[in-house]
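Section 3.1: Structural characterization of target chains.
Under the original work plan, the team committed to producing a structural model for every single-chain target entering the pipeline before any wet-lab resources were allocated. The record below documents one such target. The sequence was received from the expression subgroup and is listed exactly as submitted; it comprises 360 residues.
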Amino acid sequence: MASAKPARVPKGIVRPREAVLKMAPYSPPTAGREGKLRLDFNENTVGCSPRVIEFLRERLRADGLAVYPEYAETRRTLAEFFQVKPEQFLLTNGTDEAIQVFINTYVNAGDEVVVLRPAYAMYRFYAEVAGAAIREVDYRPPQMDFPLDDLLHTITPATRAVIIANPNNPTGTGVQLHGIERILKRARRAAVLIDEAYYEFCGVTALPLLERSPNLFVSRTFSKVYGMAAMRLGCLFSNPANIAFLHKAQSPYSVNTMAAHAVQAAVRDRAYIENYVAEVLAARELLCLGLEKLGITYVPSSANFVLANFGKRAIEIRDALRGRGILVRDRSYEVRGHVRMTVGTRAQTRRLLAALEEIW
C-alpha cells in the first residue's frame, strides 16, 4: 500500500491532515465470501473451538451486555497462559489496535519508522496516519528470505520505531531469535514491535526476551489459529513501564465483553489448537508437493499460507478459482505474479490442488 497523489478536497469540506490526504485508501475485498472456501485472509478455515460457543452460551446474559466490559478474569487467564505478569500486556481490539496504540504512543509526525516490504498493510497505514517518515526494507525474490543485514543497515540512531512480522505476511518467511536480538541491539533507541500473528505455525517467539529488552514489544492475535477473527482480540506485550504508557494511549473499553469471555475458553482448549496446527502443517506440506508436481514455484513458508508464483496468469488464476468457489489473494501488486493461498485442512487443500490442475 503505497502513498497516493494527495486527494482533492471538495469545496466546502473541512480539510483533513496532509498525512491523510497523501494516503492511498485501504479497502480489503471482504464482500461475497460466505459459502466459499476462504483461502484469502489466512483465517482458521474450520472455525473456533466448540468450547468457545458453549462458554458464550453459558456466560452471556442480557444484563451483562448492558454494562461496560470487565477484564480482570480474562487478564488472569491470559497471564497464566502466556506465562507473563498481568502488568506485562494489554488486551487489544485485534492486532490492528495493538499497532495503532504502539504508533500513537511512540511516533510523532516526521519520526522515522522502519518497516519491511511486502508486509501487512496496517504497519504502513498507521505510520502514515501519524505522519511518520517511512523507510522500507525489501524482501528479495525469489526465496524472500528475511533481509536481516539490509534491515540492520537501515536502522540508524534516528529510527524511532521498527515493525516486523515474524513470520512475515505475505511471504511466510521469518527470522530466528538470534536475529531479533541483533535487531533489538541495533535499534536500542527505538521501539521494536514483533508481530507474532502466525507464531503457532513456526514456534519462534520473542516473549522470552521481554525481561532483558526494554525496547521490545510483541503482539499476538486470536484471529488466526484460534478462529476468532470476528471477535477482534489480541494482546500487546512489553516491559511493565512501557505497558503503563501504552495504556494511556488506548481507549479503556476497546475489547468487547464477548471477546473477553470467549478467549478464556479458547486458550483452555489446547488440544483443539494443537490438532488444528498439526492438520495445517500436514496440509502445507501437501500443498507444496502439489505445487511442485504442477511446476509452480513458491516461497517456502513458516506460516499457514503459501505465496505461489503464477507469473502473468496470477489474476487469471485467482478469478478462475473464485469461479470454482475458492478464494485466494492476489499479491502481484507487491510481488509480481504471486498469489497467496491460505492453508486449511488436507481435504480443503486437495480441493484447491484439484482446481489448480484443471486451470493450470
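The CA atoms of residues 105 and 248 lie 8 Å apart.
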